[in-house]
Amino acid sequence: MKVVNKISLWIYSALLFTFLIGCTSGNNSQTSSEETVPQVFTEEMQSETTPEEALEMLKTGNQRFVSGDLKYKDYRKQFEQTAKGQYPHSTVFACIDSRSSAEQFLDVGIGEIFKVRIAGNTVNEDVLGSMEFATQVAGSKVLAVIGHTSCGAVKGAIDDAELGHLTQLVDKIKPAMEQVPDSIQPRTSSNQEFVDMVTKNHIQNVLAEIQNRSEVISNQVESGSIKLVGGMYDLSTGEVTFFE
Ligand SMILES: [Zn+2]
C-alpha cells in the first residue's frame, strides 16, 4: 500500500513538474504524449502548491485561453477521477455573466477551481461562507475576485435600476461610482470607459470588504496561507488583468 502511495506521489509530482515547466516555457508546443495525460488536481498537488504558484496557474491558463492553445481535457476521465474527492488550487469569485465563465477563460478542468458567482461580484454572508469553506476547509490557495468589462450589474447601478431584489444588489456597487475621477465624462452606462472604471473600483472595494467582514479569510491572508487578488476579464480580448 505504501509503495503504491509512493508511486502515486511520484507520478503526481512528475505531472506537477511537467505542468509547471509548461507554464514557464512560453509557447511550447504540446506533444501527443502530453495530450493523453489527464489533468486532474490531486490532494498531493494541492498541498504542494504555494499561493504564488496557484496564481501563476491562473495566469498561464488565461494565456492559453487567449492564444487558443488550450490544455487537453478529457472531461470523462476527469469526472471519473475526481468523483471521490476535490482538491482545487484556487477559488474564483466572478459575475454571473454568461460570457464570464472562469473555467473557460482560465482554461481549467473539473476539480481545479471553486467558483462563487453572483451578479456584479457583490458580497453577502453566504458568499463569504462559501469562500471560507473553499479556502480554510477545502484548502484552495488563491481567492481571486474577477470582474469583467461591460458588466450589466454595474450598468444597472449607474442607471439606478430598480427591480425586485435587484435594487439592493446594484446599490452595493454604487459607492464605486463616486471613486471615479470627475474628469471621466459622461458618467453614463453607455460610456464603457466609465463603466469599466466603476467595475475596477468595485472589485477593489470587494477585496477590502471580504477582509473586513471575514476574519477567517483575513487571518489566512495575513498568515500567507492564501493569496487574495483582484482582476478584470476583458470580454473583447479574453484577457484577465490581475491587480498585481
Ligand atoms: Zn457582470
Automatic annotation (TrEMBL):
Binds 1 zinc ion per subunit. GO terms for molecular function: carbonate dehydratase activity; zinc ion binding. It comes from the Bacteria. Zn(2+) binds at residues 95, 97, 148, 151. Transmembrane segments: none annotated. The keyword Ribonucleoprotein does not apply. Keywords: Metal-binding, Zinc. The keyword Metal-binding applies. Pfam families: Pro_CA. Its cofactor is Zn(2+). SMART domains: Pro_CA (SM00947). InterPro entries: Carbonic_anhydrase, Carbonic_anhydrase_sf. CDD domains: beta_CA_cladeC. Gene3D superfamilies: Carbonic anhydrase. Belongs to the beta-class carbonic anhydrase family. This is Carbonic anhydrase.
